[in-house]
Amino acid sequence: MDINSFIHDLTSIVGSQGIITNPKDTEIYNTDWRQIFQGNSIAVLRPQNTQEVSDVVKLCVQYDVTIIPQGGNTSLVGGATPPKQGNQIILSLSRMNKIRNIDTIDSTMTVEAGVILEEAQNAAKNAGLYLPIVIASQGSAQIGGVIATNAGGNNTLRYGNAREFVLGLEVVTADGQILHNLRRLRKDNTGYALKQIFIGSEGTLGIITAAVLHLHPLPRSTEVALCAVPDLQHALRLLHLFNNYNPAALQAFEYISQKGMDLVCQHFPELNFPLETKAPVYIVVELAIPAQGDGLRELFETVLEKAFEEEIILDAVLAESETQRLNLWRFREEQSESQKLSGANIKNDVSVPISSIPEFIERATQACEAIYPGIQVAPFGHLGDGNIHFNLVQPANGDSKDFMNKSHDLMDAVCAVVYDLEGSFSAEHGIGQLKNYMMPSWRGGVELELMEKIKQSLDPKNILNPGKIFPN
Amino acid sequence: MDINSFIHDLTSIVGSQGIITNPKDTEIYNTDWRQIFQGNSIAVLRPQNTQEVSDVVKLCVQYDVTIIPQGGNTSLVGGATPPKQGNQIILSLSRMNKIRNIDTIDSTMTVEAGVILEEAQNAAKNAGLYLPIVIASQGSAQIGGVIATNAGGNNTLRYGNAREFVLGLEVVTADGQILHNLRRLRKDNTGYALKQIFIGSEGTLGIITAAVLHLHPLPRSTEVALCAVPDLQHALRLLHLFNNYNPAALQAFEYISQKGMDLVCQHFPELNFPLETKAPVYIVVELAIPAQGDGLRELFETVLEKAFEEEIILDAVLAESETQRLNLWRFREEQSESQKLSGANIKNDVSVPISSIPEFIERATQACEAIYPGIQVAPFGHLGDGNIHFNLVQPANGDSKDFMNKSHDLMDAVCAVVYDLEGSFSAEHGIGQLKNYMMPSWRGGVELELMEKIKQSLDPKNILNPGKIFPN
């Protein structure tokens, strides 16, 4: 391949502002957010519109160069990071960052792929609407990546994953055609649901350039409580109790383990622990409705009183102010940070059927403690939808290198329990290049065969995001 | 092909109880529910389990016989009716009718494809849970068909289409392999979302044999009102008002046109019209929550009072009893029947963006009245999700044959407006063989090309439900 002529042709499509070739400037694009993966690319392309994306893809087909679509690069599984070898470009959607339209009657928003999630959330809010994808990386994650990875988050319980918000998609296919499918319809049974195929496919089947998102009414009353619960069986009973009042008011139902709470209290002493009782399990519960002052707090108190009466909870605090509300949430939000401050740690983003959570936590904890005595098992996460971040922290004052040497054994032990309980080894972060080696044992046989057939039919030259999802 | 040996081999798979070859007995399977389509088949197969389905498919591949999967045969678009020509069998899932499992903690139900929707609803209810797919054909529709057509219904507004309930699927592929994907997970981002490809594909990509459905808490407080509204713009404002209290309590928001109401009153005089005012637009509103006596009626009254104050509604009646509640619903539910009793009629199952409903109804009405003076335009349906059944009834005392001769002109006129407003020509019933000729003009170009690629990759011999979705 004549690289100079390829770069020349690319530049004539996107202009000199739309291409980066200087290795010093491409490095950040070549490296994933966690700095686990470091790849290479001929250039980083930053097209300004869908036609440019299409032209770039056609040129890459012609030159036999593969394409790594990239949004905020925060997948955590190296989903948007190029491989070390091979001829590839990175196609960053970051300059396609226009909010094309917000319709308050349809409750829809048409956005380009490069819009930062938080900016989309704010634009919705300004229009009196709510885009309920709440994830830690929302300040850098881009809509295209959010959809391509079917992102989840704290509010999945109520609103679903990214998939549930997507009414329409605009996609550039592997041969550079443009699928114009930006319909704003809630119901449309006209042939195969093409958008569903691209959502969650991690950029391996097409490049998402724009989307129509379905927005929800903006919550104007929000109430948050932190509950101390004797064990996980009781946590499930608490979930059941809230569901049987008004499930739709239940915005989040988040789990914090005793160890997880201890680590936060240790590293963030300014967050005065607000309960009288320490407990094996804590739950952050958030209720929210659009109407102001419509009895939400009374509903919350009623359910909590019932939970006390039935001895489902040991203690609870209901936030009295916006400040206290944000404070209570920080016990959950600082889980990752406090673990990082405690030394080397290992993340497991897994899910099991909700009913199996107590058994999962118990068995996985025992397995890890057997492998590495002194290990700090600090699970937390989205109990309401079965998605647990089963995180492991090195022993206090232990050796972090020695701990990390056991990371594969520990992850395998956790996954063995998940597998046995018919769970998933990647609940919300996807596969990328971190977990593709696990696909044959978890999703092998007919499943992987069907996925390969679809990949082959939509991207026969394997030009889009090679080395992701499928085992190498 | 040696038919006798084929029949012999089929019988050895399913037993003599599992095959019907007598033309007198196969006729009902060969004819669609509306009796518009009449096809032929070599035999009707009624396997008892997934392995038998797999073996039948493999045998058909061997004999080069195509397969028409059939559930309740109530798609309304001939989606499960065989063609007239060719060698095909009907594969009825009706004997695979076991509810395998209900889990009240996970809120899931594992059901075989042949379970009648109403039976699944009842089983969920007995377990204190709710399966919220409510459609007119629920007494005969089977779960497999409900999923294969991504059925909608009255409650889509709140709970989504069938797609939103499916956590896992078991599918027999076009080469007779079994995809075991009956996971009960809310979150599982591990490669392509295969289930999404089969949902809504009308049996053209695989045969759904079982599913895991996500159930909701059972509503224990339900309140229904019938509202008289000056026009459709005000109906949208009413929808907005309910959404801005607690959207999740809003279970249904159904539109009845003035003409539609008049026809019901004429044919069902026993349903005493409960309002003081006749109006251009009526809305049936249903609110529901799981908790008993938790202020739902007060909420409803608050919103209705506000609607009066703001002159959004002219009149309203809130049902005082279960009997009155069912009675109010009948004004909506008898729309189809009263139209049938009024003579020849034409159905249009279309959707547009919610904000475009007023313009759609006005323009489509004018177009139809221009084509056929005296026509009775009687739209109704799921205003809350943009899905209008734009039904047309012959003039009173008119000639039904003459009216039906204009049916294509009338449907084309309605569809032209829908197309212009970026709507869908099939909102919830699918394509089948009634509307496949429309696919190139509505979903042509890249969309149809991608659908064909997927069909080709998953069913290269075109053995599953040929002649559906794709134009012949």
From TrEMBL, chains A, B:
Keywords: FAD, Flavoprotein. Gene3D superfamilies: 3.30.465.10, 3.30.70.2190, 3.30.70.2740, Uridine Diphospho-n-acetylenolpyruvylglucosamine Reductase, domain 2, Vanillyl-alcohol Oxidase, Chain A, domain 4. GO terms for biological process: respiratory electron transport chain. The keyword Hydrolase does not apply. It comes from the Bacteria. Belongs to the FAD-binding oxidoreductase/transferase type 4 family. InterPro entries: FAD-bd_oxidored_4_C, FAD-bd_PCMH, FAD-bd_PCMH-like_sf, FAD-bd_PCMH_sub1, FAD-bd_PCMH_sub2, FAD-linked_Oxase-like_C, FAD-oxidored/transferase_4, Oxid_FAD_bind_N. It holds the Pfam family FAD-oxidase_C. The keyword Transcription does not apply. GO terms for molecular function: catalytic activity; FAD binding. Its cofactor is FAD. This is FAD/FMN-containing lactate dehydrogenase/glycolate oxidase (GlcD). Residues 37-218 form the FAD-binding PCMH-type domain.
